[in-house]
Amino acid sequence: MDSVNATSIEKMIADFEVIRLVKAALTPFEVNEETLCLDDIKEQAHTGGFVACDYTLDYFMDLYMPHIGGRDAKTKSPTYYEDSIQEEIERLMDEFENNRPELDADTKARVRTVLLKSGLPADILDRIEAM
């Protein structure tokens, strides 16, 4: 981070989402008779109605679900994307609180200096340190 001139937590959260999406897209999946569910294919092939198959319903939750933004195109809030980023920041702050690393005072001071120099607002750093 010390090599950049500015830091945006919102941009970092968006970058994390892109990384999660790429990892999900590149995760290999197993292909065999069971995962293909050939019986359902044979049974439904004439109608193409695979959505109602038990197999489809069992594995429906394997779809990628973003942490920010969303799949609801009918959202009424013009700030939905920004609001979801703030919710993700809150989730990550809670996760940090529950898994806080142990750092000595010198390390904390050096990290703070780099983050302030990079443009991270002092109030966010104060909030993190107060946790």
TrEMBL record:
A matching Pfam family: MTTB
Highest rank taxon of the organism: Bacteria
GO MF term set: methyltransferase activity
Keyword field: Methyltransferase, Transferase
Entry-linked InterPro entries: MTTB_MeTrfase (IPR010426)
A biological process term (GO) from this entry: methylation
Name of the protein described by the UniProt record: Trimethylamine methyltransferase family protein
Species whose genome carries this gene: Butyricicoccus intestinisimiae
